[in-house]
From TrEMBL:
Keywords: Membrane, Transmembrane, Transmembrane helix. The chain crosses the membrane at residues 37-58, 101-119, 125-141, 153-172. One of its GO terms (molecular function) is mechanosensitive monoatomic ion channel activity. This is PIEZ2 protein. The lineage of its organism: Eukaryota, Metazoa, Chordata, Craniata, Vertebrata. The keyword Nucleus does not apply. It comes from Atlantisia rogersi (Inaccessible Island rail). One of its GO terms (cellular component) is membrane.
Length: 209
């Protein structure tokens, strides 16, 4: 870019996707030459193997129950014979009970802790939105009131993560975004805090995890 086209200094331009080297538009679509191919596909193959393993287990359980005239357990727990009555019946049964029902008993608190962790790790504009939602949910206090707002909170999370995913992808390699023009009063720190798509300070996709 020319001197009047952007306020980006030379050091930042060297790290830009557009100017650090030749740009292959196919990479934006997700196509990249790789050798050996097995290394490139190993994560996809691992996911397929896990899914196949899961389906095999479920089919085997279903076949075993049909062959032996067994009914499907009401609760999909690991230890079917462990109930609340076994909680104080030794340390082993106590551990089994919490393996079965930990998230059922403490799932809400676990979700709150994860939300706080997201806010502390990100410390950006979307962390502030997460904080407002967390305050809105905690303000309800009672479980019944929280249950009423919880579907809206889950819908918000699904939409905001999808939106940020598209921000991480950005537009195909092209001239700078509007916030990188010479008239825009944005610097790299503000763009990073706002989680804007950019070719110099690219959004960190790890934040979505």
């Amino acid at each position: 870019p020319g001197e009047n086209e952007t306020k980006v200094n030379l050091e930042e331009l060297k790290t830009s996707v557009l100017y650090s080297g030749p740009v292959d538009p196919a990479e934006w679509v997700g196509l990249r030459k790789s050798y050996p191919l097995l290394v490139y596909l190993r994560n996809n193959l691992l996911m397929l193997a896990i899914l196949a393993f899961e389906v095999t287990i479920y089919r085997h359980q279903e076949y075993y129950r049909c062959r032996n005239n067994l009914t499907t357990p009401v609760t999909k727990t690991i230890f079917h014979d462990i109930t609340r009555a076994h909680l104080d019946d030794g340390l082993v049964n106590c551990v089994k009970y919490f393996i079965n029902y930990f998230f059922y008993k403490f799932g809400l608190e676990t979700c709150f802790l994860l939300s706080v962790n997201v806010i502390g790790q990100r410390m950006d504009f979307y962390a502030m939105i997460h904080a407002f939602w967390l305050i809105a949910v905690l303000y309800r206090r009672r479980r019944k009131a929280i249950a009423e707002i919880w579907p809206k909170y889950c819908c918000f999370l699904a939409c905001i993560i999808t939106f940020q995913y598209f921000l991480c992808i950005g537009i195909p390699p092209a001239p700078y975004y509007p916030w990188r023009s010479g008239n825009a009063n944005f610097n790299s720190n503000i763009i990073k805090w706002l989680y804007f798509p950019d070719f110099i300070v690219r959004p960190n996709p790890v934040f979505l995890v």
